[in-house]
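To the wet lab folks,

You asked to see what we're planning to order before we commit. Fair enough. Below is the target structure as tokens, and below that is the sequence we designed to fit it. If anything looks off to you, flag it before the synthesis order goes out.
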């Protein structure tokens, strides 16, 4: 493919004439405040534009890419599937890719003594849609068993579960939720166990226990009206990569069991090795009642989500009446191409020491990021597995936030892009969530550019 500045500009102009980009104030693209970067191809941990410039994908293209762009084994699986079957309705029909993927997911899912094992897989098109499935499945299963009081959901403060209306309703980030609030159901928000909120002298575990006690009090008052508690295990990703001790998950599991409330684990961003274990819940030694997975499920190649459920929830829908059936559907449910990509992705996990390699990479990330803790505007360097975050503030003693006029995150983003690294901050939080294939050279570049991006972000304070 030929590369030239003119070609890059050509695609940028064509884009701005027709496309409306997600999670973007488009005026920033039209004024070049936020540079638009058309990409021609990908290669491992790198994205390459039409000028031939390379960008280290430090955020795994919205946390989806695991083993690198254009990973040949996944691409080959999709190509082979495309020559056999590209799509078939999954109502009344089936196909090998959907069956084999479900078998693999159930084989790899956490199995914890005392918790019913996952037995069935329901497919959806993306993470938000998977959350919608889990919420409806929880509510409807209670209703089918004759418990019609359980009409409410509990979510954590600072949580994020997606952009469709049900998923957004159980999210607590004002930037996304506020304008659509009149359209949303009203969940109950309970304090997050986020260790950033620890009181003086509290350990992360103490903070988790304090949040668990608030959840316990809520369940004691209103537990018989609650259908499910939904949690992002270990890391609230879109909420600023806030992290909590596994103790909270153990307490939440015990409380949900005691009060007949379903526990929904949103493993969409944290699953498939991101936190150091295949699924984040494993670090607490628990299994949820419903588990949602997506993003890395296909290695970043195609949209697909899955909701894993135990046999007793599945059986709550078995009846002669279709009204008691789970009638949720998507046109592309269980798409063969997406399932083939996911099968290849899980095959890599089953055939290679992925988690062991990730632990080595995570240790190197920690060593490279350790000096940032001494920066006068970095209040915390936190890490869970392959997720590392830097919390930027105006004053580390008071933790006073940076002034909104500073636009620190945007300044850091622009600085990094100009130096060939894709960092996409969450507000004033810089984070690393690279593909698992990132090498030493890439990690060194990431640390070097992050260091200079920090300076650009707080320049003039």
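Sequence we intend to order:
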């Amino acid at each position: 493919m030929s590369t030239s500045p003119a070609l890059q500009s050509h695609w940028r102009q064509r884009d701005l004439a027709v496309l409306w980009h997600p999670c973007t104030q488009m005026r920033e693209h039209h004024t070049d405040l936020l540079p638009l970067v058309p990409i021609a191809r990908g290669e491992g941990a790198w994205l390459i534009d039409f000028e031939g410039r390379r960008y280290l994908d430090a955020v795994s293209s919205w946390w989806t890419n695991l083993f690198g762009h254009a990973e040949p084994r996944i691409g080959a699986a999709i190509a082979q599937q495309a020559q056999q079957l590209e799509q078939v309705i999954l109502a009344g029909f089936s196909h090998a890719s959907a069956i084999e993927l479900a078998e693999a997911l159930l084989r790899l899912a956490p199995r914890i003594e005392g918790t019913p094992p996952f037995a069935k897989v329901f497919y959806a098109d993306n993470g938000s849609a998977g959350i919608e499935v889990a919420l409806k499945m929880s509510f409807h299963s209670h209703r089918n068993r004759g418990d019609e009081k359980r009409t409410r959901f509990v979510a954590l403060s600072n949580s994020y579960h997606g952009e469709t209306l049900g998923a957004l309703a159980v999210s607590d980030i004002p930037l996304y939720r506020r304008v659509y609030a009149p359209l949303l159901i009203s969940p109950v928000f309970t304090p997050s166990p986020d260790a950033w909120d620890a009181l003086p002298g509290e350990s992360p575990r103490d903070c988790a226990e304090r949040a668990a006690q608030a959840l316990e009090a809520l369940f004691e008052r209103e537990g018989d009206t609650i259908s499910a508690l939904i949690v992002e295990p270990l890391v609230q990703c879109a909420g600023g990569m806030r992290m909590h001790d596994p103790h909270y998950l153990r307490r939440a599991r015990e409380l949900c069991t005691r009060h007949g409330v379903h526990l929904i684990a949103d493993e969409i961003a944290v699953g498939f090795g991101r936190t150091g274990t295949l699924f984040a819940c494993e670090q607490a030694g628990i299994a949820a009642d419903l588990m949602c997975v997506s993003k890395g499920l296909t290695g970043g190649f195609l949209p697909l989500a899955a909701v894993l459920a135990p046999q007793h929830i599945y059986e709550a829908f078995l009846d002669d009446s279709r009204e008691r059936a789970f009638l949720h559907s998507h046109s592309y449910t269980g798409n063969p191409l997406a399932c083939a990509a996911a099968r290849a992705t899980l095959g890599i996990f089953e055939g290679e020491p992925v988690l062991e390699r990730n632990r080595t990479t995570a240790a190197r990330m920690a060593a490279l990021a350790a000096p940032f803790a001494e920066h006068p505007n970095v209040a915390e360097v936190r890490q869970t597995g392959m997720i590392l975050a830097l919390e930027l503030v105006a004053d580390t003693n008071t933790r006073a936030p940076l002034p909104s006029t500073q636009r620190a995150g945007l300044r850091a983003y622009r600085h990094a892009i100009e130096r060939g690294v894709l960092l996409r901050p969450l507000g004033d939080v810089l984070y690393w969530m690279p593909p698992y294939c990132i090498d030493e050279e890439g990690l060194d570049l990431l640390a070097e550019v992050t260091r200079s991006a920090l300076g650009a972000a707080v320049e003039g304070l």
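Structural context that might help your review: The first strand starts at residue 39 and ends at 43. The chain has a mean pLDDT of 97.

Thanks,
Computational group
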